[in-house]
What does this fold into?
Amino acid sequence: MHFELESANNVFTFEGIYTPAVTPYAADGTIDYARFTEVLESLIEARVHGIIIGGSTGEYYAQSAEERMALAEHARKVIGSRLPLIVGTGAIRTEDAVAYAKHAREIKADAILVTTPPYALPTELENAHHALTVDKAAGLPIMLYNYPGRMGVSMGETFFTEVSRSANVVAIKESSGDLNNLHLLACKFPNIALSCGWDDQALEFFAWGARSWVCAGSNFIPREHVALYNACVVEKDFDKGRKIMAAMMPLMNFLDGGKFVQSIKYGVELNGVATGPVRAPLQALDEAEKQQLQAVIEGVKRNVAAITVL
It folds into this structure.
């Protein structure tokens, strides 16, 4: 399993808050591109540092290949050069992931997100073969995405050793929830920049040198997420960071309770941008859940504002 690897000519560094954008749907279930534009513009206005299309929060798993590519193209046109655009390539078949990677290159995405193929349960060497195949197709900077809770297997030392042969592998969204993997990456693979992918461990990630955070909650409270990033990474004030983190924990606990995508989309609606339903098999929040989430968000905003001027 060896490749002639191409390195991206442009140097890309993941720093800051990267938002996996939600996908708004119309009442008939089709993608609402006008609302999608509103979502993207709201994130740019909120000063997040980059936008991810084709992530789990965007419901890529419930979309056709044509829809995924159309969303990425639309995002590229709306965003222009104002923010980096990262495109997800997640798929069960390597051939499909390669198609998404090639399309990302065609639309001049700034980087791609490369996951483990779900359900297939590849070995670490097979998973590395998959990632390097996608890499060769795109020739773009790569953020790996380790999420064994959804993918079934975890990226580990053997995988990281293999993929480190490519200079395009520059970062990882580490979402295993296993601090041992965080320590492994920080100590043995400093070439792969850490990005927090497990929200209630954000403080730990920043302490171990992470300089970015891929956080779905930044779809609707981006300023609060940026505040935590600024405290820990820019100001290096972990006392302040701990206070902000404590203020945000009720939201993280709510999201961990299930109905994750539904909660993110409802949070966006509370900001005045209609996102429509989630696609089946998911179902909307009930009224009690909506009221609870609204109260949690209001509390987070109030408590973070008391700590820092946003």
Notes: The chain has one domain: 16-307. The chain has twelve helices and eight strands. Residues 287-307 form the longest helix (21 residues). The two ends are 50 Å apart (CA to CA).
